[in-house]
Amino acid sequence: MPDSFDIAVVGGGMVGAVLAVALDRAGFRVALIEAREPVPLASDDEYDLRVSAVSPASRRLLENLELWADLDHHRVAVYRGMRVWEGGGRAQLEFEHTALGLPELGHIIENRLIVDAAWRALRNVTCFCPAELGDLSVTANAANLTLADGRELRARLVVGAEGAGSPVRRFAGIDTVGWPYRQRCTVGTVATERPHQSIAWQRYIPTGPVAFLPMADGRCSLAWHADDRLADELRDLDDAAFAERLTRASGGILGRVTRVDSRAAFPLRLMHATDYVRPRIVLAGDAAHVLHPMAGQGANLGFMDVAALVEVLEQSRQSGRDPGDERRLRRYQRRRKVDNLAMMAVTDGIKRVFGIEDPALSRLRDRGIAAVQDLAPLKQLMMRQAVGLGGDLPPLLK
């Protein structure tokens, strides 16, 4: 007989691993299926290229799951402010942690640090790793999973949390809508002439925004969103020439870029699942939604999915319902789809507006930035949305 579980989570990255921990702590019998075993970061390893801006709400989630204390905090950088401006304009939009009475606006954390902490906390979770999903079928009473190596297991609910190419989503027959941006994000670790001051800096230019995110050792994590043609040029530059181009693209906001330690690039797209739910199947994180990374909200939206899904599943159990009950799971979809679509619409709209090269529109954008800067209530509303502490919060965020 196949092993039986309450919930099988497919995907052991940040969202999937944290979800598995949360479900285990909530008392569910959980299986985690992941293709590659995570490689922990040693304290003296070079910084990983993939980092996330973790909001105060996401920090609360990690604290409530007792994961925050297990992070290597020597590698975690706090940011207390943000500066946003347009390349040709004079106005600057400034966000400060004091406006919300918070000790910080967030933390810049390597994705692998969170994954490592979550995997070390999988106390009662049965891990199938390395393993890939070979087939998935659903009956009235259970979902049947067959792994690529022939092993079989059953679960009352399957969560697809394995990223944008989600096999669970494909097996469930869930369609997606979206489009490529014809941009790539060049990420890297760079040193600058002036200190970052624990501020996240982002300059908008027509080919895409350039962002410097503060790192714990004084360097910056780079996120340079560039149209494909420019991204090709940047890829072919040596480090010295790349540093010079980056200094110009950033407007020299932190002085010269003095060193480029590593870099890579990945394509950008918008993708949204038409449904998050099927009988005994639910999607979370990038399996359900992928947005432009300019606002740094991808990981935070995934963590909000985790908190909302766990709340719905606990409520179902309390009322004696099956965790795979589609009608109950629709509550999760209704709650998260609205928030995710709103953030996707904002980032897509900003990308398009700032991508138009027109002097008149540039002047209008500059005035708009200045107007928002002068409207404290509007800035506070924007900040509360970004830090994730507004509205009716699930228990894991309290």
Automatic annotation (TrEMBL):
List the keywords (alphabetical).
Answer: FAD, Flavoprotein, Monooxygenase, Oxidoreductase, Ubiquinone
| Cofactor list | FAD
Q: Is-annotated flag, keyword Flavoprotein?
A: yes
The region annotated as signal peptide is none
Hey, which pathway is this one from? Cofactor biosynthesis; ubiquinone biosynthesis
One Pfam family, short name: FAD_binding_3
**Which residues are in the FAD-binding domain?**
6-337
InterPro entries tied to this protein: FAD-bd, FAD/NAD-bd_sf, UbiH/COQ6, UbiH/COQ6_monooxygenase
As recorded in UniProt, coiled-coil segments are none
| Cited NCBIfam families | Ubi-OHases
The entry's family comment says: Belongs to the UbiH/COQ6 family.
Its name, as the record gives it, is UbiH/UbiF/VisC/COQ6 family ubiquinone biosynthesis hydroxylase
Native organism is: Spectribacter hydrogenoxidans
